[in-house]
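Q: What changes when iron/sulfur cluster is included in the input?
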Amino acid sequence: MEKELRTFKKGGIHPPERKEYTEHLAIEDMPLPKEVDILLSQHFGAWCKPLVKKKDRVEEGDIIGDVEKGLGACVHASVTGAVKDIGSSPHPLLVSVPSITIERDQEAERKEYKKEDWHNLSREELLSRVKKAGIVGMGGAGFPTHVKLSPPPEAKVDTLIINGAECEPYLTVDHRLMVEHAPEIVEGIKIILTILGIKRGYVGIEVNKPDAIEEMSKAVKENSEGFDIGVVPLKVKYPQGSEKQLIEAVTGRKVPAFGLPFDVGVIVQNIGTTRAIYEAVIFNKPVVEKVVTISGKGIKRQANLRVRIGTKLKDIVEYLGGTTPDLKKVVVGGPMMGFAISTLDFPITKITSGVLFLTEDEIDLYEYKPCIRCGFCLEACPMGLQPNEIGIYVEAGRAEETAQFGVFECFECGCCAYVCPSKRPLVQFIRIGKMKAKRA
Ligand code: SF4
Ligand code: SF4
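A: The predicted holo structure follows.
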C-alpha cells in the first residue's frame, strides 16, 4: 500500500495551484533599474532611520538605514549611485512609508563579492554577518532573522525546519531556488544549524515540486556530513507553509495557541532566507536583491525575476512587455494572503514573494450574502476557530466581542473565505475584529 504523505491534521484546502505559468521558468536577472526606492520598513519591528542625506554618494551594499533601538533590520543601497530623495513610497499594507530614492550611476554594474570559508567563524561572528546583511523572513513575515536565530536558552531547540512548502497558488520562487541553488541552500542549512548549535534539520517540500525534491535530496546526500539533514515530501495542502502547520506536518509536534515554534523545540526558516544567509556568511553580501514571481494572465510575459530591492513595479511591467487589456486586479503576494494594490509605483521589498496580475476569470467578483450556517468555514479553518461567528458579530457592530471566537489566533490564511458559499469577506471581518476586540 502506498505510504500516506505527511501533512497537518485540522482543516486546510487545495485551491487551484496555477503554478504552471512559471514553475518551469528559470530565474532571470532583470537589468539594473535607473532608480530604486528603498523602504525604511521592510520588516517586523521598528522602522529604520535614514543614515544618508540627499545628494550623498552610496555604493551597492552600504547600510543606508537602521533601527535606533528595538527589533528591526538595517537596509542597504541596492545599487551604486546618488541619493536623489528621502521621501515616502507606497506600501501594500501601511499605505505609505518613508523611503530613500537612489539614482543609479549610468555605468554602475553589479558588485562582485568575494567568497570566504566560514568554517572558522564563531557562532557570534556568523550571527553578526546575518544581522549586518539585514536578513529578515523572506516568505512574507519579515521577522529579523538574527533575532529568530537567538532563541532564549530555556527554549531547548533541537530541530530546524526549512520551509519549502510554497503552498500559495501561483508562487514559484522557492521552487526555482531549490531547483537552481540546492547546494547553496544546503550550505545555508549547515550554517544555521551551526549557529543554533544543533545537528537536525528537515526540508519540507510539497510533492507538486518533484524536481525540487530531487535536487534538494541530491544536495543533502552529497554535502551534509556531520549533520542530520533530511528532505520530507509533504502532501499538497494549503496553508502548509504556515509555521504551525508545517511543524505539525514534519515533526508531529503541535505549537500551543499563542505559542511560538521554539516552545516545541523548533526554528523554521524560509528557503529564500536560507539562501540569503549563505550569501551573507560566505560572500558578505547583504540583501540587495530578491527573486519574485510575476504571474497571472494579466501580464504579457510571466517570469521568475531576480530584481534589485527597491525596483518599482512599473519598471518590471515595462521589462515584461506591459499588462493585457483585461487586467482587473494587481496583488502583492499570493492570492490567498496577498494584498491588492492600486499603484505600480510600489517598490519590491525583502519580503515580496510575487506580484500577480489577475484577469476577471482569475478572481471572484460576486457580491457576498448572509451566512447560511453551513459550517464549511469551521471545517476548513486549520486553527479550529469560528470565522462565521466573527463575521456575524462584526456585521452586527459587535466586533469588540470577537476574541471569544479566536480572532487573535487567526493568521489570515483565507481558507474560511475560500470555502464560503456565500462569498463572505471573512478575512476582512477578522481584520476589523482584531482592531476592535481586546485580548483576554
Ligand atoms: S483566515 Fe483565520 S479564521 Fe479563516 S481559516 Fe484562516 S486561520 Fe481560520
Ligand atoms: S462558510 Fe460562509 S455561509 Fe457557511 S457558515 Fe461559514 S460564513 Fe456562514
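Observations recorded in class: The pocket of iron/sulfur cluster (ligand 1) is lined by residues 380-381, 383, 385, 387, 410-416, 426-427, 430 (CB under 6 Å).
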